[in-house]
Design goal:
The structure holds two protein chains of two kinds. By secondary structure, chain A is mainly α. Chain A contains 20 helices and no strands. The model of chain A has no long low-confidence stretch (mean pLDDT 85). By secondary structure, chain B is an alpha/beta fold. A five-stranded parallel beta sheet of chain B has the order 2-1-3-4-5, sandwiched between helices. The radius of gyration of chain B is 13 Å and the shape is globular. Classes of the chains: A mainly alpha, B alpha/beta.
Amino acid sequence: MKIQRRRIRLSLVLIIALILLVITAIAFKNWLGGYYASENNLLELIRGFYIQYINSLQIDNSEQYIIINYSLPYILYCLTVSIISIVFLFIYLVLRRINKINKALYKKNSVGHIQNLIIDYLYNENQQSLDKLKKEKNNNFRKNVVKQLVVLNDNFIGNKSKLIKDLFYKLELDKLTNKKLNSFFWDQRVRYLRVAATMDIVPLLEKVKENINSNNCNVRDAAQLALVKLNKKNPFEFLNEIKRPISTWQQLNFHHLIERESIPVPKFANYLSSNNMSVVIFSLRMIEAFNQNEEQIKIIKLLLHKETEVRHQALHTIKELNIKEATPVLIEKYSLENLHIQLDIIEALAMNDTEESIVFLSSLLPSENFDINWAILKNLNEKSRKQVIETITTTPEINLMLQQLAFNI
Amino acid sequence: MKILLCDKEPIIFKLLAKELTQHGLDVITAENGYKGMEMVREHKPEIVLTDLLLPLVNGLEYISIIRDESPNTSVIVYSEISEENMIEQIYRLGAKDFISKPFDPERIIGRIKRLDVYQTNTIAK
């Protein structure tokens, strides 16, 4: 909501600026009319050049008159506005540069001091150090304190970690984090979303949630990761609410977070009915990673999903979890799938190694397609392979494959 | 006994230095691999406690350089990378111990006390 309000405000400012530009252009033209009458030398000179240029264009006199009297004031206006803008832009860039240098200098001088105060507090619980850290209200100082505390908290556990969090709250940096989550700049929001997660600021849960569908991928990724840490009851609850796809990189981040932070693993089968394809794929991957094979029917049903990617992932999960109950569906679906998925089905059936799947695989041999022949022979175990070979008519290609497999063994 | 701490984040080595000096260790610090190499050549510390991800010279390279230039120095590596292959490689290069991050700084002294070099030095004193 806040982001939308900000956008409306920005659009209003742009419209007002445009109206002001038009008004000032008209006012400028009227004002210039008075100046023409006063025979200002500079204006006369510019006008002279302009008339000379228009004359050289060889257009008829009436058009020349219109161009000279109507366009010149606006051209002059544009020129003036451009020059003023360039000057302002230049001043802005210089000030920005100076500000950056000052910030860097401040950082260089203050960071060492901040680090010493923090360590002094952590080891001696020195009230004076705490007071010094509290007293400083400079924005950059407080930002650097946050940064140092986050680095420490990321690297250490145990008593020191408790003290670090304690110090964070004593300095009221949670309030700063809360404020920064409303920042107009996305990089600030990302930074403080990470701070909220690292420092475990649970009261900010709702505010973090507001960012999970942000247009900016960095903001929504940081918000989602923060939620996994902050929502203690149901860390992946947000999967029901996200509207945009989760990138593979983000999926890896979630997995890493579960393992690193010992986050309670939810039942990922609960998210298999999501409308968001990436949520389904991610859930399948997690089911596979955490060996959650209780809800096999839900996984088998996904073999009928309309999206190829989901079917492909479901097949992979079935293969990895060795879900034998999927055999009839796999056989039924085989002829309807593309070669890529067909090869996956063959692999899954070969690994299932049921009587039904071996009979089906035998029926596919010999195929005209090299990949199908090879997938069947390669993925079957030795015993099943022998069983299959006995029932089929071998071709020179299949014999060659068998020789190759025998050689590899 | 001299110990060299290497980490790209000064606040980390400052905190670890504070912890270790409390246990009577003589601590020196370096914020990148290159400076770390120079410190090893110059001071020949008995122990090097280093992060795996260092600027300028990467951690693995750093361990092998220490092994070549100061074979009596024991290296303890800490990192948030916990892949088995990587840990194996760290030990193969000559590190004596590996600690995965995040860790409790108060327990680091326990890991140092386990090293042969620490025990030999304490007995010698």
